[in-house]
Amino acid sequence: MNSYSQVESTLKEILEVIKPLREDWVTRFKIIDELREVVQSMESLRGATVEPFGSFVSNLFTRWGDLDISIELPYGSYVSYAGKKRKQTLLGELLRALRQKGGWQRLQFIGHARVPILKIVSNWQNISCDISIDNLQGQIKSKLLFWLNEIDGRFRDMVLLVKEWAKANGINNPKTGTFNSYSLSLLVIFHFQTCVPAILPPLKQIYRANLVDDLTGVRADAERRIAQVCSSNIARFRSSRTVNRSSLSELFISFIAEFSDINLKASEMGICTFTGQWEYITSNTRWLPRTYAIFVEDPFEQPENAARAVSQKQLIKIAEAFQTTRRILISANLTQSTLLPALVGPQTSRFTVKPAVSYSSHNGGQYLNMHPQVHRAVCSPFQMQHQYRSARPSTSQTQYHQAQKMMPSTSKMQYQYQKPTRPRHQVQKLTLTPSVSQVQHHVQRARPESYPGTAQRPFQVHQNQGQRWKPRYERS
Q: What is the 3-state secondary structure (H, E, C) of 146-191?
């Protein structure tokens, strides 16, 4: 087995371990329901709604990923935001209500952050939750990432692998001066923009304006306008693109290589996914004065720096992680035992024990004929939000089975591959308010949790991870 085949098979096995299963979705719905119950019991939050966002909505979360929650205050139909002081007050009151209710641990209120948040850990699988107030911007960014996710299924795989790799190498923690998960996702987008041929376009080709500036007026109208523009532009890109046939291993190795000198480039240039290229900081007035170790511009909230937490000292550590991993990936006699410690942490490594699978060519792998993947997500952000607004989950037997129907079928967790077809100028409409039956039909279709020829991994409850949610009639 050559090095590309070894990397390919190992990456696929890692994905089998870290991709969420049915139980992981159900557990998160349960957590959202419990938070909703607490919020509805508070007089100061009467009429507020509990809205997920982040990697859960963009379908870029791993089995152990955090859950981001926004509590949307009632403003009628118009977009509006609470002031920072009111957000701090409400989160403080929510903290007291959660303590009184019980069922949560490690509650921490971070009121003086740029965006005040309440960090809590659920007793269900020890899932961490970050709660904020009126984070509509975070919600719309999550939807944009979800739409990018649907252009090419390799984007989701790469984001999951890169986040796992970064955690294993200690460079995915903004508290210690390294990357947050959002900035890592932007690095993957940038790599997909700069590879040849490009897999993703410069994001200005999907939405030309600064997206957060258009979140005004009637909320439903603003979201509909954004969705329509993005849908049209994504269709245009997909109809005219040149197909990139790189395997997952080739994309991952080239990603590591591209950023191996990130500390040197960052001294003069910033990463701009809006234009899809490195840009000199001195030539970009909106980035001045230069006060950050590295600049990864938020394409949806310009000119904010998504990597503002990265310190100069830790940037060197980040570059070293890229360089060390690159040496391992291109080394001779590469084996899974030498590769795994560089790509995953101990928690994931324990379950990546399947024998290696051989491949016929280094650039084919299990992507078969190397045609673009049709990526079908579990549920769209709009469908999830509609579900939360229209139906309150319950642990009763009847509603538990209804929730199960909303989850993907493990027997259909397959990628679908198809040959490039004649260019079309329409893609699936980004529906804002689907019916419940449409949601169930969509979710019961294929879920991309495995590749052809690989067996499904049974759900496992890990030690010291808390309880897995079960309906009452299953509890002993």
A: HHHHHHCHHHHHHHHHHHHHHHHCCCCCHHHCCCCHHHHHHHHHHH
pLDDT at 427 over 60: no
What pLDDT shows up at residue 390?
52
Contacts of 379 (CB under 8 A, 6+ apart): 59, 387, 406, 439, 442, 443
Kindly indicate the confidence band of residue 379, based on its pLDDT and cuts at 50, 70 and 90: low
CA distance 449 to 355: 19
> Does the N-terminal peptide bond of residue 303 adopt cis geometry, omega within 30 degrees of 0?
yes
Q: What's the rounded Cα separation, in Å, for the pair 33 and 335?
A: 45
Q: Could you give the CA distance from residue 71 to residue 49 in angstroms, rounded to a whole number?
A: 6
Look up tokens 């191996």; give the residue. 260
263-282 mean pLDDT? 95
Question: How far is the C-alpha of 308 from the C-alpha of 415, rounded, in Å?
Answer: 36
Query: Is-contact 311 297, C-beta < 8 A?
Result: no
> What three-state secondary structure class fits 352?
coil
Q: How many CA atoms lie within 13 A of 101 on its CB side?
A: 21
Mean pLDDT across the stretch 91-101?
Answer: 94
- Predicted confidence band of residue 352 (pLDDT cuts 50, 70, 90): low
Percentages helix, strand, coil for the chain (3-state, rounded to 5) are 45, 10, 40
